[in-house]
Structures are given as structure tokens and as C-alpha cells.
Amino acid sequence: MWAVALRTLRDPEEAADALQEAFISAFRAASSFRAESQVTTWLHRIVVNACLDRVRRRQARPTVPLPETGPSEPVTPGDAMSDRETSLVVRGALAELSEEQRVPILLVDVEGYSVAETAQMLGIAEGTVKSRCARGRAKLAKVLGHLRNPGADANVPGDATDPRDGRPRRHWEGT
Fold first, then answer.
1. Mean of pLDDT over the chain
2. Sorting pLDDT into bands at 50, 70 and 90, what band is 15?
3. What is 38-103 written as a DSSP string?
4. The CATH number of 86-150 is which of 3.40.50.150, 1.10.10.10, 3.20.20.480, 3.30.230.10?
């Protein structure tokens, strides 16, 4: 549940607060649990709701984050730095997604929940989870394509142009 909160909010302090609120809500609502689903699914839904509530409140009162590093921070080795940069790029790409697409992708692709479990946690249809994940993955593929193939000009089919006439090349037209 901590991982869901952290990946949804992308801020450890916000995630900790949301998780605390979620557990208080779960404690208060424990008598209303109907056992129609697993307890973990019920708890994850409460955590996701608490996170979404915090996101809505944050949007109403935006803040400016403090820098993560200061002048006395130690220098990290090259490989660790590269991993950190990649992590920041992926987080940035996830941040560009709408909340509707980011949350299902995090639950299905990162946390490993099934589409059915995710649909139940979010209170939406399974088809909606699938379509939101598909649209979000397509956006991520365009933004993050350079990570998979750094030397290529066109990372996603359909992004390249035909050298003969400058029109966008379709995936079936080849190279």
C-alpha cells in the first residue's frame, strides 16, 4: 500500500500522510466491510482514494517543491547517476499523463495488479482500465522511446517522415 501511495503521489511525505489518512478511514469503516472482495483490494481502494483526495487538494493550493540536492550533497558514481537520470525521465513522463491514465498504469504495470483487481480498486469497468492503460502506454512510448533506442531518429512507428515527399510515414509503409 505504501508503494501505491508513493507512486501515485510521487512524494514520500504526501504518500505517508495519505497512507495515514487511509488507515484511519479503513479503521473507521471496518464494520462496513462486506467481504465481497479481498481485504487487500478494499484497503488499496481506500489508499487510492486518499491519494486522489490529496492530489485534488494540492491542485487547489499548488506549492513549489524544494530542490532535492544542496551544495553539501555527495557526488554519485556515473552508473548510479545514469540510473537516477532515467528514473527522473520516467517519472517526468508519468507526470505528463493524466491522473486517469497514470493511476491504472501504476497499478497494473508497476504494482502488478490484474486488470480486474485494478478495475475493482478504482471503481471502473475492466474495459476502461484496459483503454486507459493502452492510451497511457502509447503516450509513454512516444516520450520514452529514446531510452529504448537512443540512436534512432524515429522511436515510435508513425513518427517518421517519408524522405521522398516529407509526408508522415505510416507503420505499414516501412523504411
1. 79
2. very high
3. -HHHHHHHHHHHHHHHHHHHHHHS---PPPS--TTPPPPPHHHHHHHHHHHHHHHHHHHS-HHHHH
4. 1.10.10.10
Res 134 pLDDT > 60: yes
Distance in angstroms (rounded) separating the CA atoms of residues 23 and 37? 18
Residue type, 28: R
Using the structure block, give the residue that is written with the C-alpha cell 481485504. 39
Q: Assign 24 a pLDDT band (cuts: 50, 70, 90).
A: very high
SS3 168: strand
Q: Which three cell numbers stand for residue 113?
A: 495488479
- One-letter amino acid identity for 24? I
Cell of 109: 504495470
CATH says 1-61 is which class?
mainly alpha
- The set of cell numbers assigned to 50 is 486518499
Max CA pair span of the chain: 69
> How much of the chain, in percent, has pLDDT values that exceed 90?
33
